Amino acid sequence: MTEAALNGTPLLFPVFGVLGVLFGAGAWWWARRDGRPVVTAALWGVSLAGEAAVTLTPTASGYAGTPYCSIGPSVWYDLTAQQGLMNIALYVPPAFLTVLLFRRPLTGLAGLVVLSAGTEITQTLLRTGRACDAADFLDNSAGALIGTLLGVGWLLALRRGPQGVLRDLRQGAAIAGAGLGVVGLVLGLGIRIVQDGPGFEPVAMGDPLRAQEVADSLFGPDTRVSLTKTEPGSAGGPAVMEVTTDRGSFRIDLPSGDLLSAVADGGVIGVVLPPEKVVAAGAEFAHVWFGDRVAGVTPTVTPVPSDDTARTLTYRRPAEAGRPPLSITVTVSGTGHLLAVDTGAR
Fold it and tell me: Are 340 and 289 in contact (CB under 8 A)?
């Protein structure tokens, strides 16, 4: 979640700046009225703004396909990988500051765990370009626990222990029960569950990594590969890998990794571009993926019957000496995102 946000979200820092001012100023005003430390409150507000900006700012892909939630991935690998560590770090500051501000660590921890679960659901339902992931929830919860323990240790070092332990326990249990219950209800009613492997081993090397690389390039960051299937090529030719993701499917040649075809599943959210920019986006895609094969070939551009903002670019060339015939079609949405590509191969 966090890694994808940093890599593929151009609006991240502007959104954080706006939310940081709003949340920080609001927390500062509340703290002055409630007699709490204003600096701690302002930092707490800014830390929550960071969580909201990183997790809910739409990615560049702006995917609007079927909402889904991935449960049961390789937990240990995700925990120790860069994305897992960043997700943990994201929740340490708000948890630490929550303890200092309210001195009710269990209530604060429960609230942040519910916040993480709610964020995973919200970013999926809002089509932000990310998907709900149980690994992200566990990472965030681990960060909240670490921050809470650090906050309690800091209070004890200052000889200012937590307040009302029994009340804190009751409030924490009530928040966790009610909050996670609501999240579970929304998850059960409106979001498809994708069951990943339950092991604790790293992702296998080889084809799955290539599949993920191609998926992110075609459909945007944080695309989730759900199925890969490799079939032998016809007449003894190279094998073909068919890949299914939450945003579409594609076929690539093995071992070269050349793209054979792709189809997006669902639409994308974004500003509709002028027709010339839609065509330019399709041409750029063709040149990036097919390079010399389309060099010097002027595509035929036709509107898509079902969507007058989308365009199909068709590259054709007859067989020449030493070169096979060329037939490649690229269809791009009105927002400049890939809808389909077909090379006519196998």
Answer: no
